[in-house]
Amino acid sequence: MTMNKNIFISAMIITFSLLSCSKKEAENKELESEFTATTALVKDTVFTKEYVSQIRSLKNIEIRAQEKGYLEKVYVDEGQYVHAGQPLFKTMASLHQVDLLKAQAEAKAAEIELGNAKLLADKNVVSKKEQELAKARLDQANAEVALAKLHLSFTVIRAPFSGTIDRIPKKLGSLIDEGELLTSLSDNSQIYAYFNVSEPEYLQYQQNVKDRADSHVNLKLANDEMFQYTGNVEVIESEFDPETGNISFRAKFPNSEKLLKNGQTGKILMNVPVKNAMIIPQKATYEIQDKKYVFVLDKNNKAVSREITTSGEFPDLYVVKSGLTAQDKFLLEGVQNVKEGQKVSYKLQNPKTVISKLRLKAE
């Protein structure tokens, strides 16, 4: 019995020794590879921020029928450039022409009646009141003439400004109701780009003129090409959207080649200054489900994953919004090979040296 007990104790001692050796070997193995670590570079900088934008024409209106009738003439085609005052459409005018002739005839009769009343009043055959009534009837008749002319003019729809004709849904001979859409007209000589800005960014833009974002902006088109002209932020709306917490900015761009059209989309590129920006290399991060992480080294030189959020980026660089401090050391390389809680050996590099080797420096 004693012998079995001794054997058991010996086996336990050997097992613990083996486990201890294995643990030491694992720790030594962990420390075999030396990693490069660094800290964030803190400095004032400027980065370009993108905002999704909606493009609108300088002027864009719907052209609608002002009178009911058949579409008698279509003077233009879809996509055609027209000048202010140019005829676009004509609806049936015969009924209004009849109304005008009738009104003119009544006005002529009222004018003759006024002449007779004046002649009789001068001879004291009728009172001055009769002359005044005849004058009132003439004024009313002239008003009917003016109204008939106005209705007749409504049968010809003219361009209120120079621009480009949109789609024409109604064809020649169609019965048109009053107020029915005939087409749209856009003045694309200049365009507006609307984009939404958050409240903190709006306050930064408004409060500090020296450090505010540049009012000159660029536009990236849907094909990722840059628009050739620079725009200028000229209008900020008066209210924040209560649902999104954003406020709308409006930038104006020249568009002499008419490349941009009403309804297009793009991205506004605005240069935004950042004081005491915390800049780290992108290669020091990894992503899980659209969240960014870095491996921070704790006091025991163990790699601990930490989520970070960013407020902007350069090529190869992120501007960190939260998750790191200027004193935190984090792994620069090997983030895909390190495990959570792994003890590592590292060589610390100056962040200025690290960033100077990247494609773009934060200046």
How would you briefly describe this protein structure?
The chain has 363 residues and is an alpha+beta fold. It is built from 5 helices and 19 strands. The chain has helices at residues 2-30, 94-122, 128-153, 199-207, 351-356; strands at residues 34-38, 41-64, 69-74, 81-82, 87-91, 156-158, 163-165, 175-176, 181-198, 216-221, 231-236, 246-254, 265-281, 286-288, 291-297, 303-314, 317-322, 330-331, 345-348.
Structure description:
With 363 residues, the protein is an alpha+beta fold. It is 27% helix and 39% strand. It has helices spanning 2-30, 94-122, 128-153, 199-207, 351-356; strands at 34-38, 41-64, 69-74, 81-82, 87-91, 156-158, 163-165, 175-176, 181-198, 216-221, 231-236, 246-254, 265-281, 286-288, 291-297, 303-314, 317-322, 330-331, 345-348. The protein is elongated and about 125 Å long. Residues 26-32 have low confidence and may be disordered.
Would you count the extended β strands for me?
19
Indicate the structural class: alpha+beta
The fraction of residues assigned to DSSP E strands is: 35-45%
Radius of gyration, rounded? 40 Å
Mean pLDDT: 84
Helix content: 25-40%
Gross geometry:
elongated
Strand order of the largest sheet: 2-9-12-11-10-13
Q: What is the helix/strand order?
A: HEEEEEHHEEEEHEEEEEEEEEEH
The end-to-end distance, rounded to whole angstroms, is: 80 Å
How many helical elements? 5
Low confidence ranges: 26-32
